[in-house]
Protein backbone atom coordinates (compact mmCIF):
# COMPACT_ATOMS: atom_id res chain seq x y z
CA UNK A 1 0.00 0.00 0.00
CA UNK A 2 1.47 3.34 -1.04
CA UNK A 3 -1.53 5.49 -0.31
CA UNK A 4 -0.80 8.88 1.18
CA UNK A 5 -2.68 10.51 4.04
CA UNK A 6 -2.33 14.16 5.06
CA UNK A 7 -3.34 14.87 8.66
CA UNK A 8 -4.26 18.53 9.24
CA UNK A 9 -4.69 19.04 12.99
CA UNK A 10 -3.10 21.30 15.61
CA UNK A 11 -3.38 18.76 18.46
CA UNK A 12 -0.07 16.90 18.58
CA UNK A 13 -1.55 13.99 20.58
CA UNK A 14 -4.18 13.39 17.89
CA UNK A 15 -1.59 13.65 15.11
CA UNK A 16 0.69 11.17 16.92
CA UNK A 17 -2.17 8.72 17.45
CA UNK A 18 -3.36 9.00 13.84
CA UNK A 19 0.19 8.62 12.51
CA UNK A 20 0.66 5.45 14.60
CA UNK A 21 -2.67 3.95 13.49
CA UNK A 22 -2.16 4.78 9.81
CA UNK A 23 1.52 3.89 9.48
CA UNK A 24 0.75 0.53 11.10
CA UNK A 25 -1.72 -0.02 8.23
CA UNK A 26 0.96 0.87 5.66
CA UNK A 27 -0.10 4.41 4.75
CA UNK A 28 2.44 7.14 4.03
CA UNK A 29 1.58 9.91 6.47
CA UNK A 30 2.36 13.61 6.29
CA UNK A 31 1.06 16.31 8.59
CA UNK A 32 0.28 19.99 8.85
CA UNK A 33 -0.57 21.92 12.02
CA UNK A 34 -3.02 24.28 10.32
CA UNK A 35 -4.65 25.05 6.98
CA UNK A 36 -1.95 27.44 5.78
CA UNK A 37 0.76 24.80 6.27
CA UNK A 38 -1.49 22.24 4.54
CA UNK A 39 -1.83 24.46 1.45
CA UNK A 40 1.95 24.66 1.28
CA UNK A 41 2.39 20.87 1.75
CA UNK A 42 -0.20 20.30 -1.01
CA UNK A 43 1.61 22.64 -3.40
CA UNK A 44 -1.41 24.95 -3.69
CA UNK A 45 -0.22 28.14 -1.92
CA UNK A 46 2.45 28.76 -3.10
CA UNK A 47 1.96 26.72 -6.27
CA UNK A 48 4.27 23.71 -6.52
CA UNK A 49 3.19 21.10 -9.07
CA UNK A 50 5.95 18.76 -7.85
CA UNK A 51 4.46 18.43 -4.34
CA UNK A 52 2.96 14.95 -3.89
CA UNK A 53 -0.80 14.94 -3.32
CA UNK A 54 -2.39 12.73 -0.67
CA UNK A 55 -5.09 10.20 -1.47
CA UNK A 56 -7.12 11.51 1.49
CA UNK A 57 -6.97 14.40 3.97
CA UNK A 58 -7.97 14.02 7.62
CA UNK A 59 -9.04 17.52 8.57
CA UNK A 60 -9.67 19.16 11.93
CA UNK A 61 -11.95 22.22 11.96
CA UNK A 62 -10.75 24.41 14.83
CA UNK A 63 -7.09 25.34 14.28
CA UNK A 64 -5.00 28.51 14.62
CA UNK A 65 -3.82 30.55 11.60
CA UNK A 66 -6.22 28.91 9.11
CA UNK A 67 -9.14 26.70 10.17
CA UNK A 68 -10.61 23.68 8.41
CA UNK A 69 -13.44 25.63 6.77
CA UNK A 70 -11.08 28.08 5.12
CA UNK A 71 -8.74 25.30 4.02
CA UNK A 72 -11.60 23.33 2.51
CA UNK A 73 -12.85 26.42 0.65
CA UNK A 74 -9.36 26.91 -0.81
CA UNK A 75 -9.18 23.23 -1.76
CA UNK A 76 -12.53 23.40 -3.56
CA UNK A 77 -11.35 26.49 -5.47
CA UNK A 78 -8.16 24.71 -6.57
CA UNK A 79 -7.90 22.37 -9.55
CA UNK A 80 -5.09 20.63 -7.69
CA UNK A 81 -7.01 20.10 -4.46
CA UNK A 82 -10.70 19.86 -5.24
CA UNK A 83 -10.85 16.11 -5.91
CA UNK A 84 -9.00 14.99 -2.76
CA UNK A 85 -11.49 13.30 -0.41
CA UNK A 86 -11.75 14.87 3.05
CA UNK A 87 -12.49 13.10 6.32
CA UNK A 88 -13.47 15.76 8.86
CA UNK A 89 -12.31 14.84 12.37
CA UNK A 90 -13.45 17.26 15.04
CA UNK A 91 -14.59 17.72 18.61
CA UNK A 92 -17.35 20.05 17.40
CA UNK A 93 -20.95 18.86 17.22
CA UNK A 94 -23.80 18.51 14.73
CA UNK A 95 -23.73 22.16 13.64
CA UNK A 96 -20.23 21.67 12.19
CA UNK A 97 -21.34 18.49 10.46
CA UNK A 98 -24.25 20.30 8.80
CA UNK A 99 -21.93 23.00 7.44
CA UNK A 100 -19.49 20.46 5.98
CA UNK A 101 -22.16 18.19 4.50
CA UNK A 102 -22.73 20.71 1.71
CA UNK A 103 -19.07 20.40 0.64
CA UNK A 104 -18.76 17.98 -2.31
CA UNK A 105 -15.29 16.77 -1.35
CA UNK A 106 -16.15 15.78 2.25
CA UNK A 107 -16.51 11.99 2.31
CA UNK A 108 -17.06 11.48 6.04
CA UNK A 109 -17.39 13.23 9.36
CA UNK A 110 -16.00 11.71 12.58
CA UNK A 111 -16.38 13.22 16.03
CA UNK A 112 -13.54 13.13 18.59
CA UNK A 113 -12.94 10.98 20.54
CA UNK A 114 -12.99 8.33 17.80
CA UNK A 115 -12.69 4.55 17.62
CA UNK A 116 -9.37 3.75 15.85
CA UNK A 117 -10.74 0.56 14.25
CA UNK A 118 -13.76 2.41 12.87
CA UNK A 119 -11.52 5.19 11.56
CA UNK A 120 -9.21 2.70 9.78
CA UNK A 121 -12.18 0.98 8.17
CA UNK A 122 -13.71 4.29 7.12
CA UNK A 123 -10.47 5.49 5.51
CA UNK A 124 -10.08 2.17 3.67
CA UNK A 125 -13.67 2.41 2.41
CA UNK A 126 -13.23 6.00 1.21
CA UNK A 127 -10.02 5.09 -0.63
CA UNK A 128 -11.59 1.96 -2.14
CA UNK A 129 -14.46 4.09 -3.43
CA UNK A 130 -12.00 6.59 -4.89
CA UNK A 131 -10.23 3.84 -6.85
CA UNK A 132 -13.49 2.61 -8.36
CA UNK A 133 -14.46 6.07 -9.52
Number of domains: 1
Strand content: 15-25%
Mean pLDDT: 89
Largest sheet geometry = 5 strands, parallel
* Terminal CA distance: 18 Å
Radius of gyration: 13 Å
**Beta-strand segment tally:** 5
Work out the helicity level.
25-40%
Shape from CA axes?
globular
What is the helix tally? Answer: 5
| CATH domain fold name | Rossmann fold
Secondary-structure element pattern, one letter each: EHEHEHEHEH
What top-tier CATH class fits best? Alpha Beta
- The computed structural class is alpha/beta
According to CATH, the homologous superfamily is: Response regulator
The strand line-up of the biggest sheet is 2-1-3-4-5
CATH architecture: 3-Layer(aba) Sandwich
Low-pLDDT parts are none
Describe the fold and architecture.
The chain contains five helices and five strands, in the order βαβαβαβαβα. The chain has one domain (4-128): 3-Layer(aba) Sandwich (Rossmann fold). By secondary structure, it is α/β, with parallel strands linked by helices. Strands 2-1-3-4-5 form a five-stranded parallel beta sheet. The protein has helices at residues 12-24, 35-41, 68-76, 94-100, 116-132; strands at residues 4-8, 28-32, 56-59, 86-90, 106-111. The radius of gyration is 13 Å and the shape is globular.
Describe, in short, the structure shown.
This protein is an alpha/beta fold and 133 residues long. 40% of the residues lie in helices and 19% in strands. Helix 2 runs parallel beside helix 3.
Keywords:
133 residues; alpha/beta; Rossmann fold; 5-stranded parallel beta sheet; 5 helices; 5 strands
Q: Layout of helices and strands, plus pairs?
A:
Layout: E1 4-8, H1 12-24, E2 28-32, H2 35-41, E3 56-59, H3 68-76, E4 86-90, H4 94-100, E5 106-111, H5 116-132
Parallel strand pairs: 1-2, 1-3, 3-4, 4-5
Helix pairs in contact: 2-3
Amino acid sequence: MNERVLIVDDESEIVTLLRFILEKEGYQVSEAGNGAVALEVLGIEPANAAAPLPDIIILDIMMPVMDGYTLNSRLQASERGKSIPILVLTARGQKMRDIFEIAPNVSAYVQKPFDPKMLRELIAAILAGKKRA
